[in-house]
């Protein structure tokens, strides 16, 4: 259990809709589908209706600051069976990358490797009170394409199990007055900030360990909102939109999207 699983869920019933290919760039072929992840008749490029609207806003925000740049969708909706497949795949891949056989690990080794996996991946939990973020249709893994359509340098690939994935990992190298200044790493930091500014100004929250993972309306989002003291000072208005989904009268926060 993560702390954000304590947040209550009241599914608002918004449908899953496909991210229009003419509006949002996609990573193609889809990296998990290529591995054989069991999507059935669902596409990974679906989100809840309200999340699509916020992504449109995020891309417009991005293009105000960086004309011609686009959000590229790496992953969005993920059935729980796909979450299970990817968690198992990541565990096996990690173990093998250490020259070990997953079938012959000691208990201590298994524990250590699973901890590394779950620092970045959510548990494939079928309990409707604690769904994995992507299984709610509220979470997206995204990066940027620059004005020439090339992937922006973000400093490390999506899904890398390493500290380089932490959003501010390159911040110490980005200050031109510091001895540690490094122009290449500074660009990666700037691009991560561009991405975060675009998404956050549209209402998304970023995963604390992953520069690419953003969500709105799920349990992690609601939990991060309660940690934000300024959010608690919002007026007690009706739940007209996602930002107002917090019930400020008793400081309780409700996630709007359950697993679909
Ligand atoms: C690892 C990454 N692709 C991801 O989506 N992580 C989050 C936390 C998840 O599994 O929901
Ligand atoms: Zn994610």
From TrEMBL:
Its EC number is 3.4.13.22. GO terms for molecular function: D-Ala-D-Ala dipeptidase activity; metallopeptidase activity; zinc ion binding. Belongs to the peptidase M15D family. The active site is at residue 210. It comes from the Bacteria. Its cofactor is Zn(2+). This is D-alanyl-D-alanine dipeptidase. The keyword Hydrolase applies. Binds 1 zinc ion per subunit. It catalyses: D-alanyl-D-alanine + H2O = 2 D-alanine. The keyword NAD does not apply. It comes from Thermoleptolyngbya sichuanensis A183. Zn(2+) binds at residues 134, 141, 213.
């Amino acid at each position: 259990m993560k702390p954000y699983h304590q947040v209550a869920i009241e599914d608002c019933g918004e449908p899953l809709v496909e991210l229009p290919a003419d509006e949002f760039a996609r990573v193609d072929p889809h990296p998990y589908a290529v591995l054989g992840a069991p999507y059935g008749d669902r596409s990974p490029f679906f989100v809840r209706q309200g999340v699509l609207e916020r992504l449109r806003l995020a891309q417009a925000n991005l293009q105000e600051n960086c004309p011609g740049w686009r959000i590229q969708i790496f992953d969005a909706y993920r059935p729980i069976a796909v979450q299970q497949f990817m968690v198992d795949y990541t565990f096996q891949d990690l173990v093998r990358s250490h020259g070990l056989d997953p079938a012959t690990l000691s208990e201590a080794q298994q524990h250590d490797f699973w901890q590394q996996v779950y620092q970045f991946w959510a548990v494939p939990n079928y309990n409707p009170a604690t769904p994995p973020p992507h299984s709610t249709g509220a979470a997206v893994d995204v990066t940027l394409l620059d004005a020439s359509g090339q992937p922006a340098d973000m400093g490390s690939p999506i899904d890398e199990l390493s500290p380089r994935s932490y959003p501010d990992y390159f911040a110490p190298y980005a200050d031109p007055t510091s001895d540690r200044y490094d122009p290449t790493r500074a660009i990666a930091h700037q691009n991560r900030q561009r991405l975060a500014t675009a998404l956050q100004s549209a209402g998304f929250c970023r995963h604390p360990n992953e520069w690419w993972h953003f969500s709105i309306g799920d349990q992690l989002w609601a939990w991060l909102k309660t940690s934000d003291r300024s959010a608690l000072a919002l007026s007690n208005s009706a739940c007209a939109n996602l930002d107002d989904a917090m019930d400020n009268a008793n400081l309780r926060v409700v996630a709007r999207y359950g697993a679909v």
